[in-house]
Structure formats: structure tokens, C-alpha cells
Task: structure prediction
Amino acid sequence: MRIAVTATEPLLEAEIDPRFGRCQYFIIIDTETMRFEALENAGAMAGGGAGISTAQMIAGKDIGAVLTGNCGPNAYEALSAVGVKVITGVTGKVQDAVRDFKSDAYEATSQANVDAHFGTDII
Result:
């Protein structure tokens, strides 16, 4: 399965970025091979609609799950609509989150865990 993890830097050793729509990077990882690529999030500096545009970008990458700190309602709905599982409350290093995901330590969330526009004042 390919998963996307929000990250503060384009490295497996990076910290999880607590924002989905406005995260700095995504680390896209194949959990079977551990091959990964880092993508800069063009939506990070968007004036509005960052969650939806970021969700659309992720949806086009054949991703089965997203690991992040927080996900707002618009992004959550867009991801859920295309079958991407959303896992929130994830903290620490990307590589540790991937290890925990592979050992079934996380459960997909059933709804957004923050309000729309969360993270706009963090940048």
C-alpha cells in the first residue's frame, strides 16, 4: 500500500507536520518496499481552499491512507470520497509513524478532527 505522511522536511527522519492542507511536504511511501518520494505541497501557502486542493493532489497519487496530525472537514470529505483513509493524531518522526502504521497501531478516523482553516496562523 502507498501512504502519504505529512512532513516538515523531505526526509524519512522529518517530524510529522500537524497540518494536512498546509503541510510543507508529503512523504509518499510504499509500505511493502519502503521506497519513498518527497513532494512539496503547493497548497501550503494558498490563500484559501488548501485542504481541498491538497486532497485532490493526494487522490491522484494512488494513496490508500494519509497519516497527519490534523485534517479539516473539507479535506477529510474529499479524501474519503475517493476511498483514502485518514489517520489523525499522528506525531513524531515520519519513519516511526510508518513503522507504527505497518504494525496496525493506528485506526482511520471517522471525521475531521479540526475546523476548517486550521493551521492558517501556524505558517
Observations:
- The chain has one domain: 2-102.
